[in-house]
Design a protein that fits this description.
It is built from 7 helices and 19 strands. By secondary structure, the chain is α/β, with parallel strands linked by helices.
Length: 314
């Protein structure tokens, strides 16, 4: 069992966490960053990244996160491969305990644990993740220009993904398990009036086909829940848009969360309901969920934490 004491404790190792750590280290705060179980976050399951500034050529998601990790280490961030399991925010300094029975004592905390895409749970879904299966059209849609894709879901997220992809792909098939969408009426009308989007109602994906070659996904098998009939559709990409789940289980009794589990922060800020505790990245962002916006909020969270620590001294 180890004990760590720091002015700034960062929980999470995605773009938000690493950025907060880099800023904190450069400010002489000697931050400690607890990586969590998925070191590097969701980008580690992404193949080519083309929309992160500073990389004229595509960069593999895992490599991008490794570079962020290395930069954080080079500027002085202490990175601990551990998973926080208990938090005590009632008094400052804050106390956090990990699954490895390590204890962390911190004057300020930045929550950057991210959010995880909800998946269908199909074996081939995991096999082809990053090779035709994606949870983010904004991230990966570019690779499906003039190709056929499917989007799974029926809410606003699925509608937005389908509409976005219709401007890139050759054809978009929206697969929904009910006979009407849950998306807003405006979004439903846009889907209905878009000639590049077809909807398979009352249907679910039963299997995803593909090749072990770099080609990846080649098609899906769908089942109509009313007729029990199956249909195979040739596609190059499958976008799962059934929502995201913020990784906030351990914070549910420590800071205010919204109805979907995202950390509530003050408008235009990273401040949580607990003075001295801040949130950055996808853990508080249900709208954009981009690496670059997460990195930006990691910077913002540290600057607010730094201001908080300075005010505590005065």
């Amino acid at each position: 069992m180890a004990e760590y004491k720091t002015k700034v404790l960062i929980i999470g190792s995605g773009p938000a966490g690493y950025t907060a750590g880099i800023y904190a280290a450069r400010a002489g705060m000697r931050p400690v960053l607890v990586s969590g179980t998925q070191k590097g976050g969701q980008l580690t399951i992404t193949t080519d990244v083309e929309n992160f500034p500073g990389f004229p050529e595509p960069i593999n998601g895992s490599e991008l996160m490794q570079r962020m990790h290395d930069q954080a280490v080079n500027v002085g961030v202490t990175i601990v491969e551990d998973q926080i399991s208990e938090v005590y925010f009632a008094e400052n300094p804050f106390i956090l305990i990990s699954e490895g029975a390590n204890s962390y004592c911190a004057d300020s905390v930045i929550i950057a644990t991210g959010a995880s895409a909800r998946w269908l749970g199909l074996p081939n879904e995991e096999k082809f993740r990053g090779y035709g299966v994606s949870g983010c059209a904004t991230c990966d849609g570019f690779f499906y220009r003039n190709k056929d894709v499917v989007v799974v879901g029926g809410g606003n997220t699925a509608a937005e993904e389908a509409l976005y992809l219709s401007g890139i792909a050759k054809n978009v098939t929206l697969i929904h398990r009910r006979d009407q969408l849950r998306a807003d009426k405006v979004m439903q009308d846009r889907i209905k009036n878009n000639p590049k989007i077809q909807v398979e109602w009352d249907s679910v994906i039963e299997d995803i086909f593909g090749s072990d070659t770099p080609k990846g996904v080649t098609g899906v098998r769908i089942k109509n829940l009313k007729t029990d009939k199956y249909k195979d559709i040739e596609v190059d990409g499958v976008f799962i848009a059934i929502g995201h789940k913020p990784n906030t289980e351990i914070f549910k009794n420590a800071v205010d969360l919204d109805k979907d589990g995202y950390v509530v922060t003050s408008p235009g800020s990273c401040r949580t309901s607990v003075n001295g505790v801040f949130a950055a990245g996808d853990v508080k962002d249900a709208v954009y969920r981009q690496a670059v916006t997460a990195a930006g909020s990691g910077c913002q969270a540290f600057l607010e934490a730094q201001r908080y620590l300075q005010e505590c001294k005065s």
